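ARCHIVE CARD
SHELF: 3
SLOT: left
DATA:
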Amino acid sequence: MSQCFVLFFFLFCFFTKPSDQHPFAYFHFLCLYSYDMVHYGHSNQLRQAKGMGDYLIAGVHTDAEIAKHKGPPVFTQEERYKMVRAIKWVDEIVEGAPYVTTLETLDKYNCDFCVHGDDITLTVDGKDTYEEVKHAGRYRECKRTQGVSTTDLVGRMLLMTKAHHSNMSNPDYQQHTDNFGKGPTGRSPWTGVSQFLQTSQKIIQFASGKEPQPGDTIIYVAGAFDLFHIGHVDFLEMVYKQAERPYVIVGLHFDQEVNRYKGKNYPIMNIHERTLSVLACRVSSHTFCTTRWDVSLTVDLVCHGKTEVFPDKDGSDPYDEPKKRGVFRTIDSGNNLTTDDIVQRIIENRLQFEARNQKKEAKEMAVIEAMKKREAQDVTEAATESSH
C-alpha cells in the first residue's frame, strides 16, 4: 500500500493546462454514450474539449430525447444534470439540450464550435446529429477513451462475474459481451466492449496537481466509490462544506477488499477505473489506493456517510482509530442512492437495455458500410479520372 501511495502522490504533483486555441467550446453530450451512467470516458472527453478553449458548456439531453433516439436512460435527467456539473472541466451546463446540434444552438449559447468524440452519433432515423455544424466548419473532434463504455458497464452488472477485476479474456465474459453489444450485422467499434488500461499519463491528466497549503483542513474519506454516481457527489460536496478551506483526500479500497465485504461481482469498476472517476470530481483534491484506514495519515477530519460501515477482516471497526482521536464525523448527504440501487435499475430493465444497445450498434454498422461504399466509389472515380 505504501508503494501505491508514493506512486499516486508523485503523479499528482503534475497537472495539465488547457490551451488557448479557441475562445469557447460547446460540448454537446450524447447522453447514452456520453452522459448516461457517467464514467471516466465522458470525463476524459470533457478534459480534451476544455483544452480546445477557455469556457466549456456541456449540453445534456432530456429523458424524452434519449428514449426517442436511443432507448431508456439509466439515470434521470435531474441526476445527469447534477453529475455533469460536478465534473471539474465543465464551466456551465445547458439542461434539455436538443439531440441534433444546429448552428442556431451554437449561436444561442455564444459558442464558436462544438466538440464530440471520434465516434458517430445518430438520430432515430440514422442521420448524423452533427451534420449541419460539420458542414459549417464549427465542429471539433477529440479521441474516444478506449476500453470503457456504458455497454460494458451494464454488461458487467448483468453478467455477475469478477472477470473485469483482472482478466477480461475470460470466455464467459466475452460470450456475454458479444451477446450484449453485438447486433446481427457485426461489431461496431463504438458500441463494442474493450479492456481499459490505465496509464501514468492518464492519471497525470486527471490530477489537479494541488497540494495542501498551510491553513487547509485536510479531510479524509474512504470507500469503494463504485460506479461513481450522484450519491457519491452529494456526499463529497457535503464533506467539502465541513471546513472553510477543505482539502479532501479520497482513499479507494482495492478490488479484493471491496469484494470481501460486498460480495457477488463487486466492484463493478476496478481500482484503476474508480481512481479516474473520483479524480474527475471537482471537490476531490487527491486520491490514492488503500485497504482500509491508514494510521500513518495526518488529517484533521475523517468522514463517513450514513451507509453501513463494514468491519475489517478481524471484525474490528475500521474507524476505531479516528474515533479515538476525536476526528471522526458521520455525514448525512441527504441522498440515499447506492451502487446497489443502480445495479437493480439495470437488472429490472435488462431486456430493454440489451435491445437498446443492439439497435444502436445496428445503426452504426449501417453507417460504417455506407462509408466503406462511399470510399470505394471515390477510389473508383479517382482511378477513372486519372486514366483519361
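SLOT: right
DATA:
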Amino acid sequence: MATAEGPPAEGLLRKKTSFGALRADEDEDGAGRETHSSADRDADPEISSLSNMSQFSTGLSVDSDADSAMGDLAAPMSTASITSSVYEFVEEYGRTFHRYKQGRYWMPNDPTEQDRLDLQHAVFLMLLKGKLGLAPIENPQSVLDIGTGTGIWAIEFAAQYPSADVLGTDLSPIQPDYVPGNCHFEVDDAEDDWIYSRPFDYIHLRLMFHTFKSHQKLIASAFEHLAPGGWMEWQDYYCQLQCVDDTMKGTALEKWVRMYIDGGQRLGRDMLAPRRYKAWMQEAGFVNVTEERLAIPGNAWPRGKDQKKLGLWQMTNFLDGLHAVSMTIFTKGLGLSPEEVELFLVDVRKDIKNLGIHFYFLTYFVYGQKPPLPHDGASEPPTAAT
C-alpha cells in the first residue's frame, strides 16, 4: 500500500472504540507468504491439508512450552461493546441481523458483532504489518469497499488518502456518524446491478467468501466499473482450516469445519471460493493477477511473541463469531436444532482454545488490474509500495 498522504485520525473520527490502533509493525517472525503471478495459468489443486501444499511455508513454529510462554496473553480479549444501535433489525437466536435483503448475509450486526469486526480488522493489520491491502495502487481517487461492516477499513483508507473519495457499502447501516469528509456509506447489495456514476480506481473486499451466490457475476461488475488501470482485491479465509501436523485429526473442530462447508454449500454458497478467485479474475479480463497466501494461527500455539499475539486475537475473533455463524448454517443448512448446535459448540470451543492443536487459517490475497489504456503503457504491474 502506498505511503499515507496524511496522518490517520482514528481516535477523532469514530464514536466507538476501535481496534484499528492495535497495529503491529514489529512482527518478529514474519508470516509465511507464497506469491503466484498471472503467468502461472494452471489452477492449483484444491487444498485440503498441508500435505498438498509442499511449496507453502506458514512461517509458524510450534512452541513446545506454549502455556508457560503465554504470560499476559493467557486469556481471551474482551470485545465488550460501548456502542448502541438506533436501528430496528431482525432478531434471531438472540442476535440482530440486517433487514434489507434479509438472510443474504449470515452474520449478525449487533454491537457485539461490530466489536468483533473491528478486532478482525486489527488481525489483518497485524498480518499485513500495518497495510490495508497488497494491490500496488497508485494515487487512487475513487475507492469502493464492498461489505464495509463497521466501515473501519474505509475510514482508515480515507484518512490515509485524503484526495480519494471512499465509498463503503453494506447491507447493514451500522457505520459511525463521525468519519472523514472524503468517506461515506450506502446500504447496497453488491449482487444487484451496479449503477455508480463514476468508475473506481480500487475495489476492495475482505472476508466475503460466503456472501455471494455468484462470485463471477460480482467480478464482472467490478471489472466493468473499474477505471482502466484500476485494481480489485480480495482478502479472504480458505475456510478449510489447515494444521501443521496431525493434532487436529479426530477433533470436534475438524468435524465443525466439515459441517460448516457442507451446510454452506447446501445453502447455495461456494464455501471454498477463494481458491478460484485468481482464475475467475483472469477469465473476466483482469491482468497482472497475483495470488498471495498467508497463515493466521488459530490460537497462541506458535513460537514468538508476535505470532502468539496474532493467534490470541484470532482465537478471540473466532470464538466471538462461532455461535452466530454456526447457528445460521447448522440449523438452516444441516437441519440441526439450536439445542444440538449449542451442545456441539461446547467441545468446539475447547478445541479452539487448546494450544495443543496447531491449526491455522490459510488466508488468500488476490488482486488484479483492469488493462490500462494503450497510451498508458504499463503492461507490467507497478512495484508494490510500502
